[in-house]
């Protein structure tokens, strides 16, 4: 394309993106179950997502990850795409049931070999590998033994992490333990929208603690095993919750929502304690976090990077449509207000201002840890032309506004050091199946053909511009 897509909308105005430093890290993110396919190859055993996809009605259109983007067989071609976009880093996840089939016993060399080849392919192309150790594909056997609500799963996770590190630690510098423990715990165990599909709030809260414990144990094992310096972290999906008005009820609804979405993870990680108000909220519902002596020291093992995944903001009200502060059971009302804002195909509100505020708040409340945007992006109803090209100006606008928010947050002091677009490819979007497309590269699922969208061209050109390469 010859038009310069990277210019700001208003001619003559400085684009905040241009203030990002030349050292800023640029990448894309993916996850194993969403792209790999090859679910029964080289010794891989089922994960909770394979099982969940078999539950009638659980996933849109009955879609599964059986083939997905067939990345397992097309990996070199996909790495070439990443390199051609000029990206310096690729964030991918390792599938536990490939590396340790059944979630117990020794490592599976054939499963590890895939990631070994991937890392070498990336390094050969000048792209840094960024490994996420858990992006939701728990071996089914561990779910059968109780899953994340059970304490032992945290220890099993730490054992598996050691196996991955033993195979890749000589070449991989950056390690993320968990992707979005909120989704694993709450969508998986409390609300049942994700695998394994349980609907028990107390199980969800137990899962929160055991995921964090698993993170802390894994962090300790990685530090102990590393002979060279590593960058160690966790990725959280942080969804800001703002009160609709300054009323006490609205402020309390926002406080509650923020507590369970954000602070229940951030406080133990960085302050070594669960927030008192969240503990009290849970106690009011007859639930307690299953904390044992020493757990919080393990969970707050110092980390080097915090991964932030941001997609949308939320506005909270503490009253119902009739102005009542309590529902019929006497519980406080906590209602997400539907704002008159543009939305993505996921029906998620587009609020880049909340992204900027979030990053500045993280810098204020949890200072000292560098931030990386490990996911940000949007699904839209892409319309390919006859050649499969998508002129996704809506996605370009979303990415532009959110990168500008990152740049402004940096100007306000937030130590953000890199950005990963979600996602490289259209892929299996969990319970939405293949209906929702987040890729900057289109995948034609009939032919597996990859076609970079306009957003991919825009991303490449923006990165070049910021690096001063053009
Ligand atoms: C995040 C997940 C990622 C993808 C995006 C859209 O919550 O980490 O796998 O599904 O949402």
Characteristic key phrases:
alpha/beta, binds beta-D-fucopyranose, 3-stranded mixed sheet, globular, single chain, 8-stranded parallel β-barrel, 15 helices, about 40% helix, TIM Barrel, about 475 residues
Explain this structure to me?
- The protein is built from 15 helices and 13 strands.
- It is α/β, with parallel strands linked by helices.
- The chain has one domain (16-257, 305-467): Glycosidases (TIM Barrel), CATH 3.20.20.80.
- The radius of gyration is 21 Å and the shape is globular.
- 51% of the residues are buried.
- The model has no long low-confidence stretch (mean pLDDT 97).
- The site of beta-D-fucopyranose has 12 residues, from loops.
Helix content: 25-40%
Task: Determine the mean pLDDT.
Answer: 97
Contiguous low-pLDDT stretches (5 residues minimum) are none
DSSP summary: helix tally: 15
Which structural class matches the secondary elements?
A: alpha/beta
What fraction strand? 5-15%
In CATH, the architecture is Alpha-Beta Barrel
Task: Tell how many strands the DSSP assignment holds.
Answer: 13
Rounded to an integer, what's the Rg over CA atoms?
21 Å
Q: Identify every distinct bound molecule in the structure, by name, code or SMILES.
A: beta-D-fucopyranose
């Amino acid at each position: 394309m010859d038009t310069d897509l990277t210019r700001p909308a208003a001619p003559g105005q400085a684009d905040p993106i241009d203030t990002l430093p030349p050292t800023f890290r640029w990448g894309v993110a993916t996850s194993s179950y969403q792209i790999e396919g090859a679910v029964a190859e080289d010794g891989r055993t089922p994960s909770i997502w394979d099982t969940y996809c078999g539950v009638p009605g659980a996933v849109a259109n009955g879609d599964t990850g059986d083939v997905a983007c067939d990345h397992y067989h097309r990996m070199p071609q996909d790495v070439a795409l990443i390199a051609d976009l000029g990206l310096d880093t690729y964030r991918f996840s390792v599938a536990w049931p490939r590396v340790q089939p059944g979630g117990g016993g020794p490592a599976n060399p054939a499963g590890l070999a895939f990631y070994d080849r991937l890392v070498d392919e990336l390094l050969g192309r000048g792209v840094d590998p960024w490994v996420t150790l858990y992006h939701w594909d728990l071996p089914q056997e561990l779910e059968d033994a109780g899953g994340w609500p059970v304490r032992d799963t945290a220890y099993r996770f730490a054992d598996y992490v050691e196996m991955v590190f033993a195979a890749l630690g000589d070449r991989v510098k950056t390690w993320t333990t968990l992707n979005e423990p909120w989704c694993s715990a709450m969508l998986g165990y409390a609300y049942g929208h994700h695998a394994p599909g349980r609907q028990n709030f107390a199980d969800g809260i137990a899962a929160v603690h055991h995921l964090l414990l698993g993170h802390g144990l894994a962090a300790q094992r990685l530090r102990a095993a590393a002979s060279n310096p590593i960058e160690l972290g966790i990725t959280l999906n942080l969804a800001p919750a703002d009160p609709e008005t300054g009323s006490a009820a609205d402020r309390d609804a926002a406080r509650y929502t923020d507590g369970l979405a954000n602070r229940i993870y951030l406080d133990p990680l960085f302050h070594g304690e669960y927030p008192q108000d969240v503990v009290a909220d849970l106690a009011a519902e007859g639930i307690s976090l299953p904390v044992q002596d020493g757990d919080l020291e393990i969970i707050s093992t110092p980390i080097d990077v915090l991964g932030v995944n941001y997609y949308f903001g939320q506005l909270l009200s503490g009253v119902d449509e009739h102005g009542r502060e309590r529902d019929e059971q006497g519980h406080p009302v906590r209602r997400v207000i539907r704002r008159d804002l543009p939305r993505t195909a996921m029906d998620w509100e587009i609020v880049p201002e909340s992204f900027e505020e979030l990053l500045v708040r993280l810098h204020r409340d949890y200072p000292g840890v560098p931030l990386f945007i490990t996911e940000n992006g949007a699904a839209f109803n892409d319309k390919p032309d006859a050649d499969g090209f998508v002129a996704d100006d809506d996605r370009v606008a979303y990415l532009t506004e959110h990168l500008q928010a990152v740049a402004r947050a940096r100007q306000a002091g937030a130590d953000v050091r890199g950005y990963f677009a979600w996602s490289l490819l259209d892929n299996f979007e969990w319970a939405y199946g293949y209906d929702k497309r987040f890729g900057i590269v289109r995948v034609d699922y009939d032919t597996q053909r990859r076609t970079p969208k306009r957003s991919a061209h825009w991303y490449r050109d923006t990165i070049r511009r910021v690096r001063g390469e053009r």
